[in-house]
Amino acid sequence: MLSIAIDGPVGAGKSSVADEVARRLGILHLDTGAMYRAVGLAVTDAGIDPADAGAVAALCEKGGAHVDVRYENGRQITLVNGRDVTGRIRTQEAGTAASQVSKLPQVRRMLVRRQQELAKQQPMLVDGRDICTVVLPDAPVKIYLTASAEARALRRMKQLEEKGGQADYDAILTEVNARDHQDMSRAVDPLRQAEDATLVDSSDLDFEQTVQAVLRLVEAAHV
Ligand code: DC
């Protein structure tokens, strides 16, 4: 089965690059961050504090945060407890809840299992933080996509400005560094480059150049 595993820190352009690479290869893209966001949303919808590890674990154990994905015209639809939450998971609130629930082993076990099942059924490009290390350690193509914290903060600032928002570079850089620290210092399945993953540093690459760099690695793997 063709699986392509991509890990990397926040703001490296993983999701958009992964989407485009998968589209050009004619395979599905599984955004695993969306699944953690969906659990975060299920938790806050149930009136539970995402930092309350015991209550979150209890909710998962009784099946109250059941996440699934399906595809419509090649686009990922994320469901929690049967409800489509594809739009709602993009809020800041869901992102914050996701970063808290993603620290918990019960949540990770539940989602890793589901991600492995999905990747077994069809060729997929899967992106996240622990895909090369935990979810698909035997994937024929493994990539660590990153960029310097400064380059990621600059991109984020431009995105916000394009949307007409006010953006403070120093504040964004501090946030990027804090998210890196959180993802990389987590006790369970922290973000790190797998030994056999190829590094793609997109600091000095534009979107198309990054897509091409990933496609070249897929081609070189002869899968
Ligand atoms: O990539 P994202 O911002 O949508 O991810 C949301 C959160 O989920 C983020 O805090 C990192 C976490 N995450 C994770 O722990 N493991 C993954 N495979 C994907 C995301």
CATH superfamily of the largest domain: P-loop containing nucleotide triphosphate hydrolases
CATH architectural grouping of the largest domain: 3-Layer(aba) Sandwich
Number of domains: 2
Helicity, in percent?
Answer: 40-55%
Query: N- to C-terminal separation?
Result: 9 Å
Query: How many separate helices?
Result: 9
Calculate the mean pLDDT score and round it: 95
Order of helices and strands: EHEHHEEEHHEHEHHEH
Could you please say which CATH topology of the largest domain applies here?
Answer: Rossmann fold
- Which CATH first-tier class of the largest domain would you pick? Alpha Beta
Main sheet makeup: 5 strands, parallel
Overall shape: globular
The count of strands amounts to 8
Q: What fraction strand?
A: 15-25%
Bound molecules: 2'-deoxycytidine-5'-monophosphate
Strand order of the largest sheet: 2-6-1-7-8
Q: Indicate the radius of gyration in whole angstroms.
A: 17 Å
**SSE class:** alpha/beta
Can you tell me the residue ranges where pLDDT is under 50 for at least 5 consecutive residues?
none
Report on the structure:
This protein is of the alpha/beta class. The protein has two domains: 1-27 and 124-223, P-loop containing nucleotide triphosphate hydrolases (Rossmann fold), CATH 3.40.50; 29-121, P-loop containing nucleotide triphosphate hydrolases (Rossmann fold, 3-Layer(aba) Sandwich). The chain is built from nine helices and eight strands. It has helices at 14-25, 32-45, 53-61, 92-101, 105-121, 131-135, 149-162, 169-185, 207-220, and strands spanning 3-7, 28-31, 67-72, 75-80, 83-84, 124-128, 141-146, 198-201. It has a five-stranded parallel sheet with strand order 2-6-1-7-8, with helices on both faces. Strands 3-4-5 form a three-stranded antiparallel sheet, covered by helices on one side. Strand 4 and strand 5 form a beta hairpin. Helix 7 (149-162) packs across helix 8 (169-185). The radius of gyration is 17 Å and the shape is globular. The relative contact order is 0.21. Bound molecules: 2'-deoxycytidine-5'-monophosphate.
